Each structure stands twice: as structure tokens, then as C-alpha cells.
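User: Hi! Is it possible to get a structure for several chains at once, not just one? Here's what I have:
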Amino acid sequence: MTASTHRGDRSLAAGQRPATPRAGTPGRPPRPRRPRPLIAFGHWWWALPAIIAVTAIHYAATAAGGFFAFTDWSGIGSFEFIGWDNFTRILADPVQLGALRNTLLIAFGSVVLTNVIGLGLALALNRGLKTRYVLRVLLFMPVVLSPLAVSYIWKFIFEYNGPLNQFLGALGLTSLQKAWLADPTWSIWVILVVVVWQNTGIAMVIYLANLASVDPGIEEAAALDGAGVMQRFRHITLPSIRPAIAISTTLGLINGFRVFDQIMALTGGGPAGATETLATEVYKETFSLGNFGYGAALALMLTVIILVFAIVQQRVTRDRSKEGQ
Amino acid sequence: MIQHRKAFRRGVVLALPVAGVLALTACSAAGSGDGDANGFTFTYQTSNNLESPYATLAKEYMKSHPGVTITLNPQPNDRYGQTLRTQLQGGNASDLIQTAPGTGQPHSALTLAQAGFLEPLGKSAASLIPKGSDSLFYIGDKLYAQPVDFTVNGVVYNTTAAAKAGITKFPATTEELVQNCKTLSAKGMSFVALAGGAPPNLIQITQVISATRVYAENPDWNQDRSTGSVTFANTQGWRDTLQTIVDLNKAGCFQAGAQGSGFDAITNGLSRGTALAGFIPGGSAKELMSAAPDQKMVVQAFPPAQGGKTFTLGGSNYSLSVNAASTKKKAIQDFLDWLAQPQNAKRYAEISGAIPVSGLESVDLAGSAYQPVEPLLRSGSYAPLPTTVWPNESVADAISSGVQGLLTGQNTIDQVLAKMDAAWDQ
Amino acid sequence: MFHYTRWTALREVLLWIVALIFLLPFYFLISTALKSDAEVFSTNPVAPPSAMELGNFAEVFTATGQSNILLGLLNSVIITGGSILGLVVLGSLAGYVIARSTRRWSKVAYYLFLVAITLPTQLGTVPLYIGARTLGLTGSPWGMIVLYTGMLLPLSIFLYAGFFRGLGIAYEEAAVMDGATPTQVFFLIVLPLMAPATGTVAILAGLIVWNDFFTPLIFLAGSGAQTLPVAMYFYVGSLVSQWNQIFAIVIVSMIPIIAFYLFAQKKFMQGFAGGLKN
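Assistant: Yes, the chains can be modeled jointly so their relative placement is included. Here is the combined structure:
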């Protein structure tokens, strides 16, 4: 591999397993491990404010939330311990099971779609096109907008009298016209479309950054040797963008589990709970119905799910990136 | 590297004064909000783009009381209760808040008072409480809500549009109403404009239809449910109520796409005459007519099933309460006292299109939008809005999601009734 | 190397078609915002406006109370700016010592931050909310700055630590040999070098704070210190599907961030690509 490829790999890898000290870089000798370094850099207490803030705001608050998951607290007044009751109630409630299913559908659906489309766009925009920079800027634009603002635009498009149904009508496809946001089957897919539309740009730039560090010479040589487009993609491009795949899917999955604004603005969880996710149910139970203990139990479930998938993802991508090197 | 350093220095040089300026402007911005001792903030719900009667009255009050500033914070009514609770819990809610009498909604005054969010009111409101409904406003001897209206909850009916469609008489039975639906949809119109995507409208249609199916038969049904002698599931009237909604939907009585519509479907449908009726509080007839002066609208009771008794819902839908965390209680009490004066209560009724909160007996309804329901009001054939009496907001929540599910085919009537019972007993 | 062939031209045209379809929502946004009240009800939603109606935009700026858009803009700028400042100062200091220390505690601290990135905020929201209310931090922009700084510090430290790990220590070593104290080393040697990482932190964290809707809705709602998305939410809520006016405020709310994006688009994309240089 060329030097530039190597550098690209390293900095990307920094995103997924930064704890591993990197050795063998030109110009920097490997840092020997020793209990007491001869030279100290910075003072340990520089990290103290950050450690305190994160411990309080992330860990203490989350632990307190986890504690209330085992109570029947209403947010005000006294409460009682009720053990696993909240969880048994969640698992017996078809609405919550539906919310769980929707959470997984949106998380995995958005990861797959944003990465496939994002990679396709990145490959198409990587080299050659005269206007590739303009196109990148345009296609990335939805990423910077507020999900709430974006959802308002899409709500208009999917309204019963909105552009999409008008367009279907103009094509003579009146049988396909429907109340998209109130359709028990379609509404969840509408939300997926909006999430994917907004997040595809992130996947695109991650792949573009990785592709930029792949030496075009190798691909050209392979082309001269008679390798087809698909062969070149499988044997040259794909192995070299594994780090980008790892980062992009991890990010996408964590974000996918947290989708909230879009659902609140588009459907409010309706029709009849068809688009509720764990995140919207937590909000509804906690803030509008005052069932704080129950809401905390839902949030605890969401937390555990995210942590489990984050760990699985770490393991899978670690092996993969070893393969790739 | 040298470039980096330069860039960084420039950054610091810029950042410091910017931060300073921001700090100053933020102080002045925060100061202007609550600096004024006679000013207070006022939150109420809106469901259309017309000026709210609260806004009109607040402006009139400010005009007659120089030095008082009322900052209005209208909130969308499809999530009003949720927003209000969040703000109350955070200590950020407005000083004066619009609530609902009783207990059954997220913004119900007594529910909020029990949670400690409301301040008891002065005595000027006591005279306004409709006879026999003390339990919707008091906890013990403490009064938590000042009623502002007497609202008839039936349907608002556009007679101009009906005449144009060839319907000269309001249907006397539901069956008759359903027969009209086909003719109307052939003309691109609908009998009912429904905001099936907005929880308050789903709750309203269910309650209004229940008047003839449940409360006409058993006016004490709510009490019986409290004692446990009846349930939603074992009351044929509730089953019929939900079945009626399903039948209306099947017969095409709602506009196309109704299950996802917002309140704009009702506002636009009635004011443009593409729909004949909407399940909205009676006062809205007046609001809508002011937006569409060429359409005449009246208040009608939803027709009973063949052989049933005509009946409707009436009572105070809205009340005003004081945030316990407010520091402007004196200024607010002055405003509430002013509102309680008979001429101002009348003024509210006039601009909101409601009936004045007290003195239904003495009001002349001839020629008003309420003429069609006058006999019902005079004979006492009305029940209070069930959601003011029900014990918690979860029942209403079960209705709104359940009835939307009936429209989309996700739920069966049995499932919805079971959910309503579960919510009540929660 | 690569020749601009007919194939490439075809690819270019195809991509422009894709991009135009992709950006179609913006057409609806702009054309609807320019329609009058009468037109938005009577015409086809796909049709362009017959005349430019700018009144919807003027209307946006007349809103008061919780939907006051200019106050929302000011609050958003204060909260975003303050949070970035906190994240850069605390994040770079912590990221630096964690990257440079070889002691065991630094590894533990590093994992503490790493796990915090994946922790969803929902579970802690209510306890945080109660804590913030007790400390009087709800309803004020300063409370939000503290909150966001704490919430996003793990991300900031993660990015800084990764950056410092990739940065050679030769300069720092040389400075220490010359007798510089750790503080001098950080402020004279390290600080000027960390501009790229700071840019990434500022853009990633700044965008999260700027666009966040849920946290300010809960912590600021009703206080008059609402941010831009919250002001937009209340404005839209009081409108009930008057799409021309809704889209006017949506456009107004988007202008600052789009302007900033177009001004610094390269930095934005680099930020999302993990601070890579392309």
C-alpha cells in the first residue's frame, strides 16, 4: 500500500479502536510502556472537570434513571419498589413490543439504506466528474439541517392533498393514493425515508474520505489486467473501505436507535401507535402520562439494547479491520 | 505550523469580545422578560389561525389597564396537555394557564392541582361555578379553576353548504345521516370533516356520540363506572358509540384521508363548504363564521340511532388557573377578577361564541347559532363532558389511539373498550 | 490518468438528475413559502407560485412570546457558542492528558468517556431535569451551556484524544528538554497545533446543539429563553397547517446554518468524515 493509503487507514481506525497505541509511524518512535514516564505531559487534574461533569451528567443521571425503573414513581411524591413489574408489563404490552420492533426496523433499515446509497454516491462522485464538488455540497446539505425543519417539509409532501398524492394522481395511479402518515403499514416506511434522506450525506462523506486515500493506480492496473467493474469493486475497493464501513455503520446504528424529532413531527407515534419507538414511548409515558417509573424501565431497555449492539459492532468491526490490513 | 498558530490567535482574539457581547445581550434579553411587576405570561390552546378570544380579552385588558403587559403564549391544542405538563414540571410554565375543569385530561385543573402545580384562586370565581359542578373546580374548600364558558358539545353544522348539496333538514337519526354520505361523496364533499390525526378531535367525536348512546340512557354512568357496577366493555352504549364511528367511516361520511388529518381539515372543510359538519365545541361556529361570512353555521346535537333519544353534552370546557410557581399572583388575580365581572364574562361569550358561563336560563338563544339545540338545553337533556369527570387522562389517551386504530383497521371495538377499562382502573 | 469520456459525461448527467430529485423537497419548501393564503389552498401543491408573496416572511418576524424567532436565534447563538467554548477548553485539556498519560487511570477514564458516547440520553433525562431544576438551571441559557458541555464532552474528548494520539510528541519532548513546564508545553506547543481537531469538535458538537429540539423543549420550554427549533415548533403549532407561513419560518430558521455551511462546507464534510484530510 502507498503511504497515503496507510495514513488514511490509521486515522480512520482511530475512530473505532483508539485505545490501541499506534506504533511504527515514521518520525515517531514507539512509546515504551512504563509505570512512571520520565517526561510528564500535562497534569492529571486537567482531566478532572471533564471526569466530574461526565460522571454526573451521564453516569449518575443514568444510574438514577435505572433505579427508578424498578419503582412506580409518578414523577411527584413518594414511590414504591415494584421489582421487575414494569418490565413484565412492557413485555406483555403489544404497543411496547411494536415500539421495540419499530426501533429495530428504523435503526437497521436506516443503516442499510444510508450506507448502500451513500457508498453508491461516493463511488460515483469520487473521481472524474467536473462538478463533483458542487454535487457533494448539495447532497450533503440535508445533514446540517434541523430534523424538525426537515420533517415539516416531508409532512407537507406526504399529506393527503400533498405533492406525492397529486403526482400519483397525475400518473393515473389513484389507487396508490393514501393518507401516508396515517397508514398503519406505510407510515413507518415514510419515517424511514425521511431519516435516510437526511443521513445519507454522512455515509457519503465518510466513504469519500476513505476512497480519497485509495491509490487509483492499483485500480487502473487491475483494469489494464482486464478486471471488470464488479471484480475491481470486490477485490480492490471493498477491502480498502472496510474502516469506513465500520465507522459509518456504528454511527448510523447509534443514531438510528435515537430517532425522535422526525417521529414527533411527522406522526406523533400514530396511527394508533404504529410508528411509536422506544424513544417516543419514553417521552410519552414520562412527560405526558406521568408514568415515570414505567418510562424509566423503557429507557433502561433502550440503553441496554444500544450498549449490546455497540459492543457487538465493536467486536465485528475489530476482526474485520484486522482482515483488511 | 506558523499558520496554525496565527489562525488560532485570530480565533481567540475574536472569541473573547464575541463572548462578552453575547453575555451582555443575554442579560438584557433575560431581563426584559420578567422585569415588569405588572406583566405576566398567559398560555392557552389554539386550533385555528383566528385570533383567540383570550388574546382579544387580554388586549382589551391591557388597553384599559395601562402599565400591564400580558405576554401571550398560545400552544397547539393537539399536544397542549403534554406541553403544559412539561413546562410545569420544569418550572417554566406561564403565570396564567388555561386548564380544563375536572380531572380527565392532561391539562385538567384538579389533576394539576393534586400534583401541586396550581395556586388556589380568590373568591371572585366562586360565583361563576355552574350549579352542581363544584366537584369539578374545588378540592376541599380550595378553588383551583375559574370557568370561562358554557359550551355545547355537539356538531357545528354548515347550513349553507347543506342547502347547496340539497340537504334541507338536519338528519334526525344516524341512519338518515349515513344515507346522505354517499350523495355527498359523489359531489366531492363529505358529511363530516374529521381531524383523525389529532387526538382531541378523536376524543371529542367519541364523547359526542356517547351522549345519545350512553348518557341519554344512564346519566349516572360515570358514577356507576366509579363504583365498578358497569365497565366500558359491558355497556352496550359504548359498544354502539364505537360501532357508529366505524359505520360512519365505512359509509364514507368522513373526508378522504381523514384518519391522518389535522384540525385544518375541519377549519378548511367547514369554512369552504366542502364538509357539512365537524365535531368541535359549539363556540367554534362563531369563529368559523367570522372567517367565512358567507357560510351560515349552527350547533346541532349528533342524531341518535333510530328510536333513540336526542341528547347532547354541555358544560364548562375551559377554565383558567394560576401557576403555583408564579411570582405575579396579584397581577393575575386582578385580571381574573376583571374577567369574572358579568360584563366581561358576557364579552368573552360574545367573542368566543360560547354561552356565558352563568345564567344559561336568562340567555336568549333565538336566532343564535344555538337555536337548534335550545330545546335540549332548556329541558336539561345534556350531560357534562365525560373527560371532565373521568379519573385520569389515560382513558382519553386510550380513546384517541384506539379510535384512530378503528379508522385504520388496526384495532377492534373489543380491544379499544378493554384498553379504556384498563386505563380507568390504572 | 482519467479521461473525460462520454461515459463520464453520462455519469455526470445522471448524477445531476439524482441530485435534483434528492433536492426536490427544497423546491416545495420555497415555492410554497412564496404563495399567498388563497393560493396555497386553491392551487396544486406542485405548481409554482403565480406571484412572489413575501408577506409570509414579514409575518414570521412579528411573532412574540415563545415563537419570537429573533430571540430564539439569539439564544441559539449563545447556547451553541458557549457550549463549543466549554467543549473545546475542557475537552482539549482532558483529551490531551488522557492521550499522553501512560498510567492506568487514563485508560479507565478513556473508557469512561467512550461508553458515555453510546449511552442514550433518555434514561438520564428526568433525573437530570430534576437536578437542573433544583440547581435553578432550567429555563436559562447558562444552564443549557453547562448541560450540553457535560453531555457532549465524551465526543469532544474522544476526538481530541484521537487527534493527540496521532500527533508526534517530538516538539513536546524538545520543549520539555529545554525546561518548559507542562503548562507551557500545552499552551505554547500543543494548543496552536490542535486547530484541525478544534474545528471538528466545533462543527460536530455545534451542529448537534444548534439543531437539538428535545432537550431545549424540556429544559427551556415556556421560559422565554427558547432556541430556534423550539421557537419554530411553537410558531408552527399556532398555525395549523398554513403551509405557506410554516415554510416561511422553516426557511428563516434554515438560513443561518445553510449560510454557515456553504461558507465552511469543506470543514463540515471533514468533520463528519472523522477529521480526515482529503
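Residues 2-34 of chain B form the longest helix (33 residues). Residues 40-150+316-358 of chain B form a domain with the D-Maltodextrin-Binding Protein; domain 2 fold (CATH 3.40.190.10).

User: Great, thank you!
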